[in-house]
């Protein structure tokens, strides 16, 4: 009678099971933490939010404005009046299957309660208005990650007891973009969002 050595079958099975379990545990740990709104709920793709400064006396919500007698492109600015909640936005994570906005993950940001005839309302980085500054303007392209759309991708990180907006896209592996936190630049009495201000604008997210 032939004796079958079951060890030959059990050991490889256990090894495959162990490796598979380890892989899924690592993948689970790699999932970034969700960004939360002021109600403690995860910020979601396709849902309208107001971006407002954290704390009182720090100004109002975000909107668009013109600077230096230019109406194209319009810049993303902050209203100085804290009673103004601004224009609501939506976030679109780079992974089209991801519906939760997560920390440090590239995403598009766009104003959704306004229509501008000659421009999209997707945020992008622009150096044309003030060559030495990386301003945040509208007129970007949604989706299509890569070298051609490098200026259209932003992310959110924790900052003290709230969050900050950051420009440091990784949608192009061979590109080396200028990176920095987004703060406020005073331009002829207007509070313009741009990359590089320290400290950054500390923000919270309010579902509409």
What keywords describe this structure?
mainly beta; Trefoil (Acidic Fibroblast Growth Factor, subunit A); Miraculin; signal; two-stranded antiparallel sheet; 208 residues; globular; single chain; protease inhibitor; 10-stranded antiparallel sheet
Topology:
Layout: H1 7-30, E1 49-53, E2 62-67, E3 70-78, E4 89-93, E5 107-111, E6 123-126, E7 134-138, E8 155-159, E9 162-167, E10 180-187, E11 190-195, E12 202-207
Antiparallel strand pairs: 1-12, 2-3, 3-11, 4-5, 6-7, 7-11, 8-9, 9-10, 9-12, 10-11
Protein name: Miraculin
InterPro entries: Kunitz_inhibitor_STI-like_sf, Prot_inh_Kunz-lg
Signal peptide: 1-28
Describe the fold and architecture.
With 208 residues, the chain is mostly beta strands. The chain has a single domain, classed as Trefoil (Acidic Fibroblast Growth Factor, subunit A) (Trefoil), CATH 2.80.10. It has one helix and twelve strands; from the N terminus they run αββββββββββββ. It has one helix spanning 7-30; strands at 49-53, 62-67, 70-78, 89-93, 107-111, 123-126, 134-138, 155-159, 162-167, 180-187, 190-195, 202-207. The strands form two sheets. Strands 1, 2, 3, 6, 7, 8, 9, 10, 11 and 12 form a ten-stranded antiparallel beta sheet that branches. The longest helix has 24 residues, at 7-30. It is globular and about 45 Å long.
